[in-house]
Amino acid sequence: MIEVKGVSKSFDGKSVLEDISTVFLPGKVNQIIGQSGSGKTVLMKCIIGLFDVDSGAVMYDGRNLPDMPQSEKKMLRREVGMLFQGAALFDSLTIMDNVLFPLEMFSAISREEMRKRARFCLSRVNIPQTAYDKYPGEISGGMQKRVAIARAITLNPKYLFCDEPNSGLDPVTSLVIDRLIEEITEEYNITTIVNTHDMNSIMEIGAHIILIDKGHKAWEGSKDDIFTSECKALDDFVFASDLYKKIKTRVNAG
Amino acid sequence: MIKKFLQEVGEYLLLMKRAFAKPDNFRMFIKQIPREIEKLGVDSIGIIVIISIFMGVIMTVQTVLNTENPLLPRYSTGLVLRDTFLLEFSSTIMSLLLAGKVGSNIASELGSMRVSEQIDAMEIMGVNSANYLILPKIIALVLFMPVLVTLCVGFGLIGGACVAQFSDLITMSDFIYGIQYAFIPFYYTYSVIKSLFFGFIIASVSSFYGYYAYGGALAVGRASTHAVVNSSVLVLLSNIVLTNIILT
């Protein structure tokens, strides 16, 4: 569980986040949504520890990240997996070596066990064996995202962060990635936080959603609460397109 | 401007402190060094050999043509070529060439890793990315510099010998006598010592600009340019300091 308590952050005197509090539960896909520039990426980076918070606390199962000494932060990071917007696979390593990298770096198991674990993670995200020796530049964007998920779960993380996992993907591949994130979250009881503004993703896997609007938490709920919410900021964000306006009208009309 | 300069120096020193930390995994760290030696050192041999041969040829021709003085002994061409290569060309000029080739390679590699979030991915895994990515490059280049210096001197003299062999500007016996005349072995040591410092400057300064290349492709290009320009200037400045310390 990750608990965010009264987190504020500013850059050069300009406030970007103000007094954000929420709880991200394990085994559920938690989503941070909001328009571009609303502060959701800053919030995620504050939670991960890439940015220091100005005030407030980020509690990882009761341990406050900003108060942790560097060595403890480093140990905590080994419990964290992250899926980046552009996958961030290492260009110079093959698919197999990318997944092996965290294992070789931090685990004490034998080389054969490492390869077994890497093969398991790659097969879990449906990467065919024929792709194991390819380089990231030789596979599709959707496949790169799946490899990045495999790399993120190799060390059995307790926390998984996904920064705009559907960015640049077609709707079908996006759905595959969304479902994969949801399955893995439930299967391994991971506390997953997804940063997104993809409406399909929100409606598909948003078990717990917080909406960030101009640096404030404007709304909190689940995908099922979206249609009944009277929050204007949520309405403006979710039902911005004609399609979603029509869907809302139909849903509310029963 | 002074504030920006001091800020950059501070950031560079802090990065070096992180780079010279204890590796997270010694086996993985050591594995990086031969790879970097191949990429930064072995892959530079070709260009160093070509440039050294051609410079050896042209310096021999120029020396013969511009020192037509009956008071100067005929072997002086070989002596001038040898000492020029030993004292400055093999260390300083070769390092300037390497600042262009290796410096831009390092800065663009790290810059691309930064803008595509590969460095962030390492940091989030708990890997000290500065140590894992930068220190092997510094070690590799510093270790390989003496090899490049030796090759540079050797092929420069071969270039000179080619002139003696294939032209009538100078005889081979005069040339051979010249390159052996009044040889001071310490000049080679001096050149190697300087090259170690220059190797460190090129690898560390280029890594610094690549590591902090925030933005897109433009930032990578800018980092590459800064890496080449600043490491070249620092090589030249440190050459003055090192020459004064070692030779005086």
What does the model show?
The complex is a heterodimer of chains A (254) and B (248). Chain A has 254 residues and is of the alpha/beta class. Chain A has helices at 40-48, 70-77, 95-106, 111-124, 141-153, 171-187, 199-205, 232-238, 242-252, and strands spanning 2-11, 14-24, 29-33, 55-60, 63-64, 80-83, 159-163, 191-196, 208-213, 216-221. Chain A is built from 9 helices and 10 strands. Chain A has a 6-stranded mixed beta sheet, with helices on both faces. A 4-stranded antiparallel beta sheet of chain A has the order 2-1-4-5, with helices on one face. The two termini of chain A are 36 Å apart. Chain B has 248 residues and is an all-alpha fold. Chain B has one domain (24-247). Chain B is built from 10 helices and no strands. Chain B has helices at residues 2-19, 26-41, 45-66, 76-115, 118-125, 129-133, 135-166, 172-180, 186-211, 217-247. Chain B is elongated. At the A-B interface, α2 and α3 of A face α5 of B.
Keywords:
heterodimer, A: 254 residues, alpha/beta, Rossmann fold, six-stranded mixed sheet, 9 helices, 10 strands, globular, B: 248 residues, mainly alpha, 10 helices
Provide the gyration radius of chain B in Å: 21 Å
Order of helices and strands of chain A: EEEHEEHEHHHEHEHEEHH
Strand count of chain B: 0
Between the first and last Cα atoms of chain A, what is the distance in angstroms?
Answer: 36 Å
Number of domains of chain A: 2
CATH architecture of the largest domain in chain A: 3-Layer(aba) Sandwich
- Using only C-alpha atoms, the radius of gyration of chain A works out to 19 Å
Instruction: Outline the biggest β-sheet of chain B.
Output: none
The assembly state of the depicted protein chains is: heterodimer
Poorly predicted segments of chain B: none
Low-pLDDT segments of chain A: none
Quote the beta fraction of chain A: 15-25%
Distance between the termini of chain B: 34 Å
Average predicted confidence as pLDDT of chain B: 94
**CATH-wise, what's the superfamily of the largest domain in chain A?**
P-loop containing nucleotide triphosphate hydrolases
Strand content of chain B: under 5%
